[in-house]
């Protein structure tokens, strides 16, 4: 196809030379038509390029949203896992504290009311 277009251009130039003034007019019209086709093709290319850039931008935007959501979910999962570990550690500390309290010998606590009751009885016995 490209070769035929090239050959048509060469043929138009050959007629230009053959027909003199009339050929020159025809050649100039063909050049103008060619410029119009080129400009329309450039406009189409620019439109397609703009549409492609918009679609790429939209796709990148969606990907960023998806990645943020995924990252957010990972952060939530990490925070949840850390919270569970903290709860487990708290339970372990409480269990150790309870076991330590049971294992430690207790000193008798002096109750002032019991002491007061025992002292008068000791005095009467003497």
TrEMBL record:
Species assigned in the record: Parendozoicomonas callyspongiae
InterPro entries associated with the record: PhaF_PhaI
One matching Pfam family: Phasin
Bias-annotated ranges (Low complexity): 106-119
Transmembrane segments: none
UniProt region (Disordered), positions on chain: 101-126
Name by which UniProt lists this protein: Phasin family protein
């Amino acid at each position: 196809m490209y070769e035929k277009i090239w050959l048509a251009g060469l043929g138009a130039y050959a007629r230009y030379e053959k027909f003199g003034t009339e050929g020159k007019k025809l050649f100039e019209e063909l050049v103008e038509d060619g410029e119009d086709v080129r400009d329309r093709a450039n406009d189409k290319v620019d439109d397609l390029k703009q549409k492609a850039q918009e679609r790429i931008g939209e796709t990148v935007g969606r990907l960023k949203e998806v990645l943020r959501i995924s990252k957010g979910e990972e952060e939530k999962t990490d925070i949840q896992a850390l919270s569970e570990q903290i709860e487990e550690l708290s339970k372990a500390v409480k269990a150790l504290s309870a076991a330590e309290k049971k294992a430690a010998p207790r000193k008798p606590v002096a109750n002032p009311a019991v002491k007061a009751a025992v002292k008068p009885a000791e005095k009467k016995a003497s």
